Amino acid sequence: MACPDISQDEITMLKTARERLGYGYDNSFSVTGPIYMSDLQRMSGGNSSGSGNSFLAVNTLNPVENRPDGENPLSFAEFSKYNQTVTRTAFNYVYSTQNSNSACQAAIPSPSPYFHTDVNNLVPDAGGGQYTAYTTISGATVAPAGYYAIYETGNFPTASGKWMQVGNNGAILAVGNC
Fold first, then answer.
1. Taking the domains of the chain in order of start, what are their residue ranges?
2. 155 Cα distance to chain centroid
3. Whose CA is closest to 117, among 91, 93, 149?
4. How many CB atoms sit inside 10 A of residue 68's CB?
5. Which residue, 4, 17, 73, 141, could crosslink 9 as a Cys pair with Cβ 3.0–4.6 Å?
6. pLDDT tens-digit profile of 13-46?
7. E-state strands within the chain
């Protein structure tokens, strides 16, 4: 599990260290002390400030607002919703601004993939805005609002049989079957 949303729960040094080591925020992994905030926030990882564990590099696939920037002042707020093991899944697509039927009935998928976040590295099962679609793997730009018939990049051009609706902020609002 990732670090909690700081607006809803407190973030602790020990649990953040577990997340930064890749074990998960709520895992019971035994972290060797001491833990220095400067090591937790160092973009390249490591333990050059003297922490008992060497931390992984900051996962820059997290949105910018959910990851540390490595700059002073150091703050736990920078870890709000941070996930050390987040991945982005590539997908080819057919896009429509009208509705899911329009996207599902079109024949030629995009030549370049978009990307989405999902904890299982699959097409998201549920919408609700908890996942985001991006135009690049870095997450620098969210995908345009609309409907996407999803094609798997490995089996291109075989459709996955799913569609998703993306909102103005890139949030995946709904998912369904074509």
1. 1-84, 88-177
2. 23
3. 91
4. 21
5. 4
6. 999 999 999 999 999 999 999 999 999 999 999 9
7. 88-96, 114-117, 133-134, 146-152, 159-166, 172-177
